[in-house]
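Annex B. Sample input.
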Amino acid sequence: MNKFINKKKDDKDEIDLDKKAEQEEPKWYIIQTYSGYENSVKKDLLKLTNSKTKISKFIFDAICPQKKYFKIKADGTKQEKEKKMFSGYVFIKMIVTNYSWFVVRNIPKVTNFLGSIRGSSDSRPVPVSKNEMDHILMEIGLETQKKYDYLINKKVEIINGSFAGQKGKVTYLDYNQNKLIVEIDLFGRTTPIEISFYDFKELLNC
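Annex B, continued. Sample output.
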């Protein structure tokens, strides 16, 4: 009897957690697949987003990033082709709960989430950073280049590389190279550091 009562309580707690999770902002994650089955997995995920079942509240999009390139044929003409940017991986926009995590991991040809330990019930996947995902979406044409002109003379924090954690003022933007220059205090001297558009976060009210 106690086991039955405890199970009912656990089920109710899980439902409450899922309802709370529905209000969260979805994030992008990377799932690993068998090579050659990326598009098949993507199609299965997109079917879930359009279904009228509970899982559609937690899965919003899936992509297999591809880049276009030209191949020169024997007659000298160009042939446009596409190549996967990340073989063996599919990007999924979702809200991670115990339920949605379980559903995605059990889709045929999915091996695991990138960043989680297979066989561990406590190892939640790590989302792709917003800057990194923006970069990928821009490369495949799903987003346009974000403009950062408003950051000139504003402070930002470096989040990757040797100077992670340092804060400084933006003095220059290079849209061709997707880089900016930040002046930081290094050993008591103002030093210009070049970083990419994907290695900083904006500081509010600075």
